[in-house]
Structures are given as C-alpha cells and as structure tokens.
Write a structure and sequence with these properties.
Distance between the termini: 53 Å
Radius of gyration: 23 Å
Number of domains: 3
Structural class: alpha+beta
Strand content: 15-25%
CATH topology of the largest domain: Chloramphenicol Acetyltransferase
Largest sheet: 4 strands, antiparallel
Length: about 325
Amino acid sequence: MALEKIVVPEFGEVQTITVVDVFISAGDKVEVETSLIALESEKAVMEIPSPFAGVIKEVLIKENDTIVSGDLIALIETTDSGNVADSFSPVEIKEENLTFHATPSVRGYAREHGIDLSTVTPSGLNGRILLEDLQTTAMPSDMRVLDPPLEDFSKYGETEEAALGRIQKISGSHLYRSWITIPHVTHFDEADITGLESFRKKLNGELKEGEIRLSILVFIIKAVSVVLKEFPHFNCSLLPGGEKILLKKYYHIGIAVDTPQGLVVPVLKDVDRKGLRQIRTELNQLSSSARKGKLAIPDIQGATFTISSLGGIGGTGFTPIVNGPQVAVL
C-alpha cells in the first residue's frame, strides 16, 4: 500500500473550473474509474474518475471551490501499485472577490465593457454568471427578451414538474443567448449526391468485417473543412466591440450529439489533415463517449464551425442555432 495524491488533470484551454459536486469522503473505498467529483466549465459538467483503487484518506476540496489543473483533490491509500497518478504543477491565478460566481474570462469581459456584475442575472449552475448573461445585460432594454408569466395549467388537468439535467441547463442557456444575440439567416438547398453515395458504398464494400462503416456525415465533415479554407469568413469569430473579426487558420468541427443528458457538441480536431477513415473512427469514439457521459473537457473545446445533423431522424431541412461565438452552422 502507498499514499498517493489525486490531482486535477490538465483541461487544455480552461484555466479555472468550479467544483459542483463531491462524491467521496474520507474512509470511502473506491475503484479505478470511480467518479470522485463533478466539475463545471462554461460549456459542460464533467466527472473526474479515480486513477487508483484504494481508500480515501482525506478530501482536500469542497463544493463551489474554484480550482486549476494540478490542485489536490484527495489523498488515497492505494491497493493497486500498478497505477501511477500524473503529476501537475498548480497554476497560480489571482482571483478577484468571489462574491459573484464568474470565471476570470467573464470578469475580464465585464471590466472591458463596464458591466457591474451585481446587476447581472446569472443563468449558470449554482448562480454562476456566464458570458451570455453579460452580453444580454449589455443589450438595449428594448431588445431583451423577458420570460412571460406562466399560466396555472393545473386548473385544466393533472400536471407534473420535472427537473432539467445539468447539461440541459447549460446547453439551453447557451443556445438561448445565441438565438437572441446572433442574427440568424437560414439558406436551404438541394444537392445531387448520387456519385458520392456510389463512392461511399464502394468504400464500405472494401472494409473488413467488423470495421465501422462510412456514413454520409463523414464525407460532409471532410467537405466542410475544404469549404472553410476557401471561404475563411465562415471560420471566424466577431471580436468584442464589433469592429474586427478573428480568422482561425485551423479547422476543428463540432458535431451536435443528442444524449440522454442533453445536447453536447464534441469536437473533431484538424479535420483538414485527416482522411475519411480517421474521421469516421474519431467521430464514432466521440459520439459514443458523449452518449455515455464520458467526454473529457478538451473533447468539447476549440470548435470553429458546427454541424447539426438530423439525418438519423429524417426530414427535408431545419433551422439550427449558431453555436456562438462561431458565425455559422450547417
């Protein structure tokens, strides 16, 4: 047996993140992959699994703590010496007064635009202020959308209230803000894909038994990366102030996935550098992880463009919501 440290893993672009739930306490026995804590970023809630099997000796964080990569989560007396936890150096972050729950990037946006956080109505979990909340606050009052009063429907018959899940709350809030802050114009068109479908069937016919088949979506993802290079203004973001755009020279495609927990958008990185079979494999892995609630935070970061596909349901077309701060969605 040995006493090991369990630390907050690396989250890529995310510097600080909030603890929204702690599942363990001192004395608990855990196995490898047992969920220890739940963390909330601005886009998702993720659970952190244990890298060891053993007995928790001490829990060093609590709910609502703001933490960074490298912070200690717990001390564990291990029963499996074969697993070794990664070691990270804590990142020093100078936080402001935490009376208002907001990430440093949100606080920076508030300072830049002269927004008093005390005037902002939070829509995130545990009263957290999101960037979209600030953008709504900065809108002229006559452009804001207020919740209408809700009628008492129980007078007409039996009703039941059902709580939204965490992911549903986060994605719902984000999509709502995007809908009211980004002008949406939808273009519908039809394309003859007879040749593409024949090519797809030919490639699938060459696959070995047990290999994952190529879907039409795989071809669309690859085609989008080519088109974005030709039309770079669809691969950009509008900078604060509305006077400049940020053109991105990388092509990370988000794929909207409907899961039992709610809508999530895992991201395929550097699609322009990958072949169809690699895209197919990564798409299958990310979609499976999304439905199982096993996505890591880097899996949902960095998208420059999003594809929302209802191909599995059917229909002729629909109007998706732009996944801000992106400027377009297919």
